[in-house]
Amino acid sequence: MAAEEVNPDELEIADELIAERRAEAPGETPEDMTSWQRPITAAIDRINYRAGQIIALMMVPLIAVVVYEVFMRNSFSILQNAGFEDLARSLGLGPTLWVYDTSRMIAGMLFMAAAGYGLMRGVHIRADFLYRNWTDKTQATVDATLYLLFFIPSMIFFTIVASQFWWLAFSKGETMQIDSAWGPLLWPARTAMPVGAFLLLLQGIPEIFRAFHKMGKDRERWFVRLLPLYLIGLIWLVLAVFLPDTVPGGEWFTDVMKARPGLSKPTIGLIMLGAMLFVIFIGFPISFTLIFLGFVFGIWGSNFKLTTLLLTLNTNSTMLNDQLMAVPLFVLMGIVMEAAGLMERLFASIQMIMARVRGALFIAVLIVSTIFAAATGIVGASVTLLGIMAGATMSRSGYNVQLAAGTITAGGTLGILIPPSIMLIVMGPVLEVSTLDLFRGAFIPGAILASLYLIYTLGRCWLNPELGPVLPEEDQPDTSKFYGAEVALICLGILTVCRVFGLSLGGAFGAVMPFGGLIVLAFAVAVAHAAYRRLNVLRMVLPIAVLFHFYMIVANMGDDGGLPIGSTTFAVFTLLLAFLARPIYSAEADGGFYFSELWDEFFAGLMPPTILISFALGSILLGLATPAEAAAMGAFGAILLSLAYRKFTIPSFFDSLVKALEITVLIMFLVAASNFFGAQFSALGTPKMMTELLLGLDMSPYLILLLVMALIFLLGWPLEWVPIVLIVVPILLPTVQALDVYGLERYDLMVWFGILVAVNLQTAWLSPPVALSAYFLKGVVPNWDLKDIYLGMMQFMLVQLFGLILLFIFPQLVLWLPAFMSGN
């Protein structure tokens, strides 16, 4: 099969947001580039390349300090609850003052200082669906023009203003006082702003030279001839802005900037919005477009001083945002887990377990994609790996290509929604709600979508068995005669251990002894392993496990004597599983019952990522750790798993750090730029005017919200989630906040709206023409026709819309778990 010839090591599966990652090595230039441009381009590329490598290493101390804080704080809490507070204090355990500030300063320096590296690698996002259809000469001409007119001036302004902002902090010894108990000096972290802005400005020069080379010698000559005039004009502009007394016309330019506009500020904001859409759809990198337009329209609508203040403050607040600190850590966790090869083992084992069921590969794909989504939150990684693992087998087994492609791409998109979703982490500060509540709110919708995908695929296979036939005999595993009992016992064992794990994580055993939860969990796992290996132990443990679940009914019974629904359901289900496992007590089982080898592979693939996800995600949902702390622990755990599976090497880990840095720069620099643009847009009063206009219409608030969701749905076709969440959603937010929908309070409304947007934006991955999932899948399964992939994706997009309608009609599907977990 052609699909089997793809080499996964050659695929960039962590860069689904990146428009066009540069293929050539840093410092490598075309031989026919103009001679005087080649050494300049190579030198600047190498400078930013080395800077990026050094900055990527900063993730290691970031993980270390956060893991240290979690260990110190929770060790102290455990010993304190057990009555050993004096011992804990004598050991120096307890919460720290310095880790919180140190970690967010390191995280802020990551994306800001590496911005130039991101541009050198070509990872700044652009809406290039129009751009890619132009000729090379047209692309190069537009790039060169926009870099000269937009990028260079705005980056010079940014560098100068950031330097002034840094000097202010350095000269006055400014400390972090607003939200810090430690109060560290600010200037070391702020050094990343002028340094990063300068490296970004410097990298603009090679980008211009590359555009010159791409457009051809004839057009290049015209640009080169105009360069002296351009440089003179640029120098005059910079001096006129910052030192107006030193150049002729400087005072006149200052008066022009201070002049009040003839148009109203909201009207200027509308022009700003139109200009932003025009330039973005041309295909210029979105971050730089937002910074330049924020400068121009901010000066036009207000003044230069306010504009520069908004730029520095918004960049600084993005750098020090403790919620956004989780972005690089969760990304790194996903990339390291992918490199460890855990998902391949899990998929192979589930495929074997379900081999005798119609649509077995569909089930395996959806289960693995759900687990991988919870482990990584990276869509491209999920789609690519699932395509590599399942594509060839599905083709060989006679599976329907359209349904197979739809299952793989739809399952991969769950990474957008299921925590720890990178999009939800970014969306939290935008909506001004806790990322924790967004995670909790996304849990049930994610499970609903995964279930809908499963019901749809299995339903189609039940109606038409040819869509997903039973796997051929050569692909089926060797099992015992009591395979049904095997499945029932494995399910019962997993449910029981998970129940004990949940009690341990919730602190049920912590009051008994120090580290009581870990001790009880270790004992339960040891007993389960003994039962798994020895039939006589299994026969004794089975009734004890059933009694344990029935005991939980009594333990969780309310004061009114009412039966707890959850515990009762668990107990009845375990009783059913025990009934199905009754053949192990027959005489025939003494020599004929055994657990097949496929279960060893299943546990080897399932348990490590499940434990990692449970600790990371469970600690977030239970409120035991912040998303950033859970992300650091998850990244640390992924490294340990990589070591345990002997997949860890220094070069591969360094490569993972660099990949994580690239995605972090892409997202976080756009967050900073969009925050600046949004602050300028709000200062002009345009969102307020738009809100009053919409609310002034005689329309139901539900209809207005439907129009908002329809707009986001349509924008999800040409745009990725990043610009929609960071640009479109803040523009629409004042309107949504003013709506009276289901009587929801503002906070609950924002959590619900955030999950609706997240589910809606999954269409960006399932809707042509920009559906990158299709191209990722086509890349690893080249014998599948792109038309069939699209048709398969469209089926699941309709399933997804059905799920979105359910969430719209029943908001408690989103809001129940956050309220329950917070005790309301």
Structure description:
The protein contains 36 helices and no strands. The protein is mainly alpha-helical and 824 residues long. Helix 13 (304-319) runs antiparallel to helix 28 and helix 16 packs parallel to helix 26.
Helix content: over 70%
Low-confidence stretches: 1-19
Terminal CA distance: 55 Å
Share of residues in strands: under 5%
Over the alpha carbons, how many angstroms does the gyration radius reach?
A: 29 Å
This entry's quaternary arrangement is: single chain
Strand tally is: 0
Broad structural category = mainly alpha
Mean pLDDT: 84
Can you tell me the overall shape? globular
How would a textbook summarize the main sheet? Answer: none
Q: Give me the number of helical elements.
A: 36
Give me the secondary-structure topology:
Layout: H1 37-56, H2 59-81, H3 85-90, H4 98-113, H5 115-121, H6 136-171, H7 187-190, H8 192-215, H9 217-242, H10 250-258, H11 265-282, H12 286-301, H13 304-319, H14 326-339, H15 342-353, H16 360-376, H17 379-396, H18 401-417, H19 422-431, H20 435-463, H21 483-505, H22 516-533, H23 535-555, H24 565-580, H25 589-592, H26 597-621, H27 627-644, H28 650-683, H29 686-696, H30 701-715, H31 721-737, H32 746-761, H33 763-766, H34 772-780, H35 786-809, H36 812-821
Q: Quick recap of the structure?
A:
The chain is mainly alpha-helical and about 800 residues long. Helix content is about 75%, strand content about 0%.
What are the key terms here?
mainly alpha; globular
